Amino acid sequence: FWLSIYEKVCQQVRIDLIHIWEDMSGKNGPLISPAMMREFMLPQYKHIKAFADAHKIPVFAVDTDGDVEHVIPVLVESGVNMLLPFEVIEGCKSIVDYRREYPSLCIMGGISKLEIAKGREAIDGELERLREVFDTGTGFIPALDHLVPPEVSYADFKYFVRHLRQCL
């Protein structure tokens, strides 16, 4: 259904990104097994990827929260080349680890909204934790791992943005 709509859109404008909002993971891991993803989702994702390639759409993104460790291999195999928001969860891999393991995967997010809410010292620590990813130069779109929480003051948010720019 969506590809038939996108086909008409692609005749009128150049599309840069196909974004699927799946939320296939939670804080404890995938909501369905990687085997089920391969059986039921991978063929459809490959179909979408073929459409993207045929229309020169360079980015095929999936939005999924939580611990994504077990879903990334299936998504990459299917042609997905960007994931977001890379929620920061204690005990799970960070975007530093994912950047090392999947250097061609574009990562958007991975900056802890909870750390940003703790103030300037925590903001500095969070940005320092991600220094290696900033230094890769490509394939990373810095963003919080979700919406800005209400406990982040405007002054601290401006501080965060200013210091984030310095990291880039």
Structure, explained:
It is a single chain. This protein has 168 residues and is of the alpha/beta class. It is built from 8 helices and 7 strands. Strand 5 (82-85), helix 4 (95-101) and strand 6 (106-108) form a beta-alpha-beta unit. Helix 2 runs parallel beside helix 3 and helix 6 (120-129) packs parallel to helix 8. The model has no long low-confidence stretch (mean pLDDT 93). It has a 5-stranded parallel sheet with strand order 1-4-5-6-7. A two-stranded antiparallel ribbon has the order 2-3.
Strand order of the largest sheet: 1-4-5-6-7
Radius of gyration of CA atoms, rounded to a whole number: 17 Å
Average pLDDT for all residues: 93
Task: Describe the global form.
Answer: globular
Order of SSEs: HEEEHEHEHEHHHEH
**Number of helical stretches of at least 4 residues:** 8
Name the poorly predicted regions: none
- What is the share of helical residues? 40-55%
Helix/strand structural class: alpha/beta
* First and last CA, distance: 40 Å
Number of DSSP E strands: 7
Q: How much strand?
A: 5-15%
Largest sheet, if any? Answer: 5 strands, parallel
Brief overview, please?
With 168 residues, the protein is an alpha/beta fold.
What attributes does this structure have?
14% strand; 7 strands; alpha/beta; 8 helices; 168 residues; five-stranded parallel sheet
Question: Strands, helices and their partners?
Answer:
Layout: H1 2-10, E1 17-21, E2 25-26, E3 29-30, H2 34-54, E4 59-64, H3 72-78, E5 82-85, H4 95-101, E6 106-108, H5 113-116, H6 120-129, H7 131-134, E7 140-141, H8 154-167
Parallel strand pairs: 1-4, 4-5, 5-6, 6-7
Antiparallel strand pairs: 2-3
Helix pairs in contact: 2-3, 6-8
